[in-house]
Amino acid sequence: MQQDTVIHKQIFSGAPRYFKCLLWIALLFVLTFGGLGQRLFAQQAVVTLDRDQILLGEQVTLQLKVENLTDQAQSLKSWFKVSDTAGHIIVVKAAKMDTISVDGQTTLMQKLTITSFDSGSWQIPVIEPVVSDINHQEYTLSTHPVTLQVLPVDVSKLKDYHPLKEILAVNYKDYTWLYIIGGVLILAVILFFVLRLLKRRKAKPKSNKPVVKGPHCNGPWGKLINWKKKDSWKLANLKNSTPGYWIFAAPTLMSGFLPMPSRQHPRNW
Fold it and tell me: For 31-68, b where at least 16 C-beta lie within 10 A, e where not — what string?
């Protein structure tokens, strides 16, 4: 042990001064940035495309992922943001974020469906995520840029469904006024007949004679009833005299008001 100490002293005593300074600087660098370097290289953000070439309007999947987050030491402050102010890239659908935890290490992942309607090569603008450590220090996880190449569609072999034709001139006449005049004339004719009918009803005199309805009032029985009401005083005087009664009632019976009764059984009025 004493020999090792002596050798160590001999090395440092015999070394130049600048060499000693370099050793001390390297030692301080390792102690200061060793933990930070381990922390930075442990977590990483990854942006990938399932394919880097599409035609106009085709859709492609953009995957955003943050790997190896320690549950106790790191927490996610902000997630990726895809914002294309130029409008070359359009986000069609954003799926929900998936979380995978294995042995205290967490991986966050999200898939976006994007498309483009501008031909050309476009770098997808992705805002990188921000992570916070146990000391509440925030740092950004860097990513590699992703480029999407949009190819135009070859329309040279496409054919139109129908050929273009010239616009044909059509003679158009407006018959609106004729329809209006015809409607007015029809209304005038209807109004004329209605007024004429009302005028005829007002000019017709009303009859003061009572109208007797019913089948019994129009036949012989009706006439006989009216005759009895009118000449009831004559019937009362002739009721007790059978020959006189039949002489008085003979014209009525002969005219068909009543059937001819038998003289042996005269009717009792």
Answer: eeeeeeeebeeebebebebeeeebeeeeebebebbbbe
Task: Report the alpha-carbon angle 19-25-26, nearest 5.
Answer: 90
Strands, E assignment, 124-205: 126-127, 130-132, 138-140, 147-151
Position 100: which residue type?
A: I
Report the domain count for the chain.
3
What is the C-alpha to C-alpha distance for residues 80 and 173, in angstroms, rounded to an integer? Answer: 65
Going residue by residue through the chain, which has 269 residues, state the pLDDT in tens, using 9 for 90 and above. 444 444 444 444 544 565 566 666 766 665 555 444 444 446 788 999 999 999 999 999 999 999 888 866 778 888 999 877 667 899 999 999 998 888 888 889 999 999 999 999 999 888 889 988 888 888 888 888 899 999 998 777 777 677 778 888 888 888 899 999 999 999 999 999 999 888 888 776 666 655 555 555 555 656 666 666 665 555 555 555 555 455 555 555 455 444 444 444 445 44
CA distance 108 to 63: 11
- Whole-angstrom Cα distance, residue 30 to residue 25? 9
Give yes or no: residues 143 and 58 share one domain: yes
The answer to whether position 234 is within a domain reads yes
How far is Cα 214 from Cα 205, in angstroms, rounded to an integer? 24
- Same domain assignment for residues 17 and 114: no
- CB neighbour burial string for 202-218, b if at least 16 within 10 angstroms, e if fewer: eeeeeeeeeeeeeeeee
Q: Whose structure tokens read 């495309």?
A: 49
Residue 188 lies in a domain: no
Domain that holds residue 8: 2-41
Count how many residues are written for the chain: 269
